[in-house]
Amino acid sequence: MGLTDLPDRADVVVVGGGIMGASTAYFLTEATDRDVLVLEKDEIASGSTGDSSAIIRHHYGPSEIYARTAAWSHDFYRAFEERTGEAIAYAPNPMVRFATEGTPSGDYVEAGADVLRALDLPVSRHEGDELDAAYPMLELDDIDFAVSDDDSAYSDGTDVAGGFARAAQNQGATVVTGVAVTDVLVEDEAIAGVETDEGTVEADEVVLAAGPWTPRLAATVGLDVPIEPMREQVVILDPPADFSEESLPDLPSGGPPGGDWYLRPDFGEGVLVATHHTGGETDPDTYDRTPDQSTLLDLTEKIGAFAPGLAEAGVQGQYCGVYSTTPDHDFVIDQAGPDGCYLACGFSGHGFKHAPAVGRLVTDLVTGAESSLVDVEFFALDRFEDDPTGHGVPDDKI
Ligand SMILES: Cc1cc2nc3c(=O)[nH]c(=O)nc-3n(C[C@H](O)[C@H](O)[C@H](O)COP(=O)(O)OP(=O)(O)OC[C@H]3O[C@@H](n4cnc5c(N)ncnc54)[C@H](O)[C@@H]3O)c2cc1C
Fold first, then answer.
1. Residue 207 pLDDT > 80
2. Fewer Cβ atoms within 10 A, N terminus or C terminus of the chain?
3. Which CATH number fits domain 228-325: 1.10.10.10, 3.10.20.30, 3.90.79.10, 3.30.9.10?
4. Which residues line ligand 1 (CB under 6 A)?
5. CB contact at 8 A, 349 and 339
């Protein structure tokens, strides 16, 4: 994918060929006749997107806004090939929240079930003896109840970002890889273009969708975007044969209460296990892509306690990826700074499932259409002006 020649002008430059930039280019070219140019410094999906566990769920505790954007996006994913002409990997798999009564996380799990029911999204609840019958492969002695987000699924970040980018190209977008934006150009308080390591591109509008690199670019137009890049660690297990036969087909996505790690079945008979919001701040250019030995040992112990049949699992693969974490774990989708400057960033480890909605919301911002999906004001950058924690540091790791 990509062109060797860099155009010297576009109506809209989208910086970043991750899932958010690619989705934005798709929706912009579907809804408008603007000339759209995607600039990606490396390859499509080479950032957080390529490392994503790509779980598509709708349970977000009491937050209806994310349940809505997830559900809308999931409908799009189900129809992805029909809508875009591009096939994607997709496997239905319930996402289950395990909880204990009378705890803040138990309340969060119950609240999420209520939201799902209110939105007519399939949800089931198991408690007591039913738990062992529902999840015989898991050790749930300390668990009081489980809420299953029944219609969940998982996919693949590289597949989806590539699909969006090719479909955007088919709709007229230009996608250039291997070209880095070094500066955002402003004239008379309005976007004038971008400077790249291959020359200047004039443009009227710029969408900064550069994942954990976005704050650096936003700073060139005077915007302070509070994103901490955090390193998360992933291991793909090779389950023993009896687990693969008896348990893998019914294994849900999820993890014990606390939310600092989760597992899900993987394409190709593996089991993916990943840390969640446990990593320290990192540099997206130089972070160590190999998980720490101490983390692997800790995860092995936790996995053995939660899914005993996986205690003796081998390892198929391992890597690390980067979350773009905001103080409140909420996204930044906004017009901010000079006229024509848009932000789509801060997806905090849970952006994949919302990517179609994000592309649509950014398109609505660019065209000035009032979005009927959700109130995009929730994602505005200025929430950090009065309070540096924005909506507040979340109790649960969403
Ligand atoms: C380990 C892991 C597991 C995850 N699991 C899930 C999950 O199960 N479900 C879920 O919903 N979400 C999940 N996420 C989160 C989700 O993957 C991200 O929110 C999403 O991929 C963010 O996409 P993005 O396009 O914003 O960023 P990125 O994918 O990082 O894309 C940004 C792109 O911009 C490019 N770029 C940067 N700077 C420049 C520049 N100056 N010029 C040109 N190009 C530039 C980069 O090379 C990169 O390709 C996970 C993330 C990780 C890391």
1. yes
2. N
3. 3.30.9.10
4. 15-21, 39-42, 46-49, 51-55, 157, 180-181, 209-213, 217, 232, 234, 274, 321-323, 345, 347, 349-353
5. no
